Amino acid sequence: MAGKRKANEAGSSNGLRGDVLCVLGVLKVATADQIQRLASPNLTYRRTLKKTAALRKEARTASHRGAANDLRGHGLAVDGGRTRGGEEVRLLTKDGLAAAAIDLDREPEEMGGMPKSAGRSGASHLMTVNETVIALIRPKPDLDLVAGEPAEAVAAAQAAVDAPKGIGTLTSYATEVALPVKGTWKNPAIGSARADRVKVPLALPAP
Length: 207
Prior knowledge:
The protein has eight helices and five strands, in the order H-H-E-H-H-E-E-H-H-H-H-E-E. The chain is globular, with a radius of gyration of 18 Å. The model is unreliable at 1-5 and 202-207 (pLDDT under 50). The chain has one domain. It is of the alpha+beta class.
């Protein structure tokens, strides 16, 4: 047990670390709040008795913040600055992106690149892309995991479940994908555009 605590000092599970890897593998840069809403939407409807919105957010994102910290300890993730609202953003290292590709079952060229200066200027564009993906997916909570919460929270979770379905799932999207004007998908020419988001699997031409 001591060895496990040392390896993952924040105490995160394999599943939680996998959640963070997958979300960051798709979005590239995200806050703990965005990771939680995509990976564990049921947590949005728990801890609702906390006195303030800030305390509720801190409680519902704690497990994913811990998982991101453990990934950082393994050299797979780094802190990427803060949004204009002051929220810390996380992003993957090169090794983290490779690990996410395995979890997402994607080829390296389907993963897209890492954005430059991710959190240095507030990451406002990246946060907008993330919120668009979340709005398209409309993650649904598992009502069994909300059982026992206050009636208002259960009702809100039920309303989310009953709302129209979103478009795809997290693994339906990729971001920062090169669209080569010349070169190849694996080695796009300098100056090639990058798509903010695309649906996958990509229709890559034969080599």
